[in-house]
């Protein structure tokens, strides 16, 4: 037993932790966990815990289903919303197969591999995701799309229970080591955003999962449902997960160059060029459901064209005005239904491809693209993001760089899921179709 493990065993005892959750995520980014009593901690931390991966979406086939959960010691946290008596702590785990081989279908492992590629080039990747979500009313234990409050953007008055939920989420995340930068009411009724400080990409991907888990658990205690669905209600803003990204080298922000045009370094420009080049394929993971594509439409501050800008929020990539250590590029397409490990891995791989191959982005688009006609967009060579899951999946399959990044196992499973979802959607006759056609035809 290493001294590190001993340290954690002491901590678990001192903090009176009774249960330990070993957490990981499936290919769709849904958190899974196995709970063990604290007396099993020594075994779990030393050897890991075997589990049956065949029932986890996108994991093993039946014939090779045994998987080993290996807790990452750095991710230890007590779950603050659980009772003070008999405390619950969690570790986020890496997944291995026989012979301690990292499992190629583990999203966290996909991200780790990509981080190692970046490290070879001397880079670390920092991300700052902004998660938006709705708080909906639960009726008889079932989530509805009924609002809990009718506040508006940046409203101050703490008028309702939704405000209490947001406060409790902020407090819980702070207890778990998040540095909360801002929390506010969003544009739509009952929609909220909580921003936390950026950090290294693996930590922030873990935090996205923790964030959703905390928000859902705390909302439930108030009889509410925290929904991270991209577009739960037609006609009003959906929920995004804009992701700010920057590369650093030798501890310094590699996007900042005080002497360059716009004070953006070549590395920053190539990163943006790479993201734009691979934008269509990234969409498959950043916008992973049928519903995701109902958010990527004009008019609600969500992007639908492949462009970049220093100012306007209709662009896919925006470069905020801050410079120095805060120099960064914001990718505005991801939504909070995405698997953060896979999404960040694809962003990083696309950016690194830009740097390796010196991919210069086209000129910035500083006017509002929603207001351009198709001819002008064509002249400016502004292409569109995929309009559906089927389209983005096809784009991924055409993108060798991102297929290599995700690996065969993950790509095969993403394709299978995209086909299954598309077929299921097609097999349904939707109310819109009846409204539109039934009386006329
Ligand atoms: P917006 O104007 O889009 O709302 P914010 O100003 O709220 O964006 O910033 C959002 C995120 O950007 C935060 O999570 C913040 O920590 C992050 N951020 C700041 N500096 C960097 C950086 N150098 N690299 C990556 N993310 C950063
Ligand atoms: Mg924000
Ligand atoms: Mg902001
Ligand atoms: Mg927002
Ligand atoms: Mg933003």
How does this structure look, described?
The chain is of the alpha+beta class. Strand 1 (17-25) and strand 2 form a beta hairpin. The model has no long low-confidence stretch (mean pLDDT 92). The protein is built from twelve helices and 20 strands. It has helices at residues 3-14, 41-47, 107-120, 161-175, 201-221, 266-277, 279-286, 340-356, 374-379, 389-398, 400-426, 431-438, and strands spanning 17-25, 31-37, 49-52, 66-71, 77-78, 87-97, 101-102, 123-139, 142-147, 180-185, 191-196, 199-200, 224-227, 241-249, 252-253, 305-306, 308-309, 317-318, 329-331, 383-384. The radius of gyration is 22 Å and the shape is globular. The protein folds into two domains: 3-101, Glutamine synthetase, N-terminal domain (Ubiquitin-like (UB roll), Roll); 113-427, Creatine Kinase, Chain A, domain 2 (2-Layer Sandwich), CATH 3.30.590. Helix 3 (107-120) runs parallel beside helix 8, helix 6 (266-277) crosses helix 8 (340-356) and helix 7 runs antiparallel to helix 8. 36% of the residues lie in helices and 24% in strands. The strands form three sheets. Strands 8, 9, 10, 11, 12, 13, 14, 15, 17, 18 and 19 form an eleven-stranded mixed β-sheet that branches. Residues 130, 132, 186, 193 line the site of one magnesium ion.
């Amino acid at each position: 037993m290493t001294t590190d493990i001993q340290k954690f065993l002491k901590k678990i005892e001192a903090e009176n932790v009774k249960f330990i959750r070993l957490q990981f995520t499936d290919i769709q980014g849904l958190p899974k966990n196995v709970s063990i009593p604290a007396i099993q901690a020594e075994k779990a931390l030393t050897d890991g815990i075997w589990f049956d991966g065949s029932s986890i979406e996108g994991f093993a086939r039946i014939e090779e289903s045994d998987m080993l959960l290996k807790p990452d010691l750095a991710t230890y946290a007590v779950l603050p919303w659980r009772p003070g008596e008999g405390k619950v702590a969690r570790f986020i785990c890496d997944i291995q197969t026989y012979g301690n081989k990292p499992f190629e279908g583990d999203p966290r492992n996909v991200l780790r591999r990509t981080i190692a590629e970046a490290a070879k080039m001397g880079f670390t990747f920092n991300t700052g995701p902004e998660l938006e979500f709705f708080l909906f009313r639960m009726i008889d234990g079932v989530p509805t799309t009924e609002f809990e409050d009718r506040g508006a953007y940046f409203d101050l008055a703490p008028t309702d229970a939704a405000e209490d939920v947001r406060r409790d989420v902020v407090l819980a995340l702070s207890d778990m080591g998040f540095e909360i930068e801002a929390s506010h009411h969003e544009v739509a009724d009952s929609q909220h955003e909580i921003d936390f400080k950026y950090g290294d990409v693996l930590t922030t991907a873990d935090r996205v999962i923790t964030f959703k888990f905390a928000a859902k658990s705390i909302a439930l205690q108030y009889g509410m449902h925290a929904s991270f669905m991209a577009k739960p209600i037609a006609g009003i803003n959906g929920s995004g997960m804009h992701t700010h990204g920057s590369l650093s080298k030798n501890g310094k922000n590699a996007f900042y160059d005080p002497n360059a045009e716009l004070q953006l370094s070549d590395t920053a420009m190539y990163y943006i060029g790479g993201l734009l080049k691979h934008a269509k394929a990234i969409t498959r993971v950043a916008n992973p459901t049928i519903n995701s594509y109902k958010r990527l439409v004009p008019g609600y501050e969500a992007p639908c064209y492949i462009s970049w800008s220093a100012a306007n929020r209709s662009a896919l990539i925006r470069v905020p005005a801050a410079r120095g250590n805060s120099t960064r590029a914001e990718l505005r397409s991801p939504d909070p239904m995405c698997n953060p490990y896979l999404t960040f891995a694809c962003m990083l791989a696309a950016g690194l491809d830009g740097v390796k191959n010196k991919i210069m982005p086209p000129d910035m688009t500083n006017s509002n693209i929603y207001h351009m006609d198709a001819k002008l967009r064509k002249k400016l060579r502004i292409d569109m993001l995929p309009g559906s899951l089927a389209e983005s999946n096809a784009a991924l399959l055409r993108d060798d760089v991102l297929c290599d990044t995700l690996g065969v196992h993950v790509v095969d499973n993403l394709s299978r899921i995209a086909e299954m979802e598309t077929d299921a959607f097609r097999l349904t006759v939707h109310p819109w179709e009846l409204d539109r056609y039934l009386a006329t035809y």
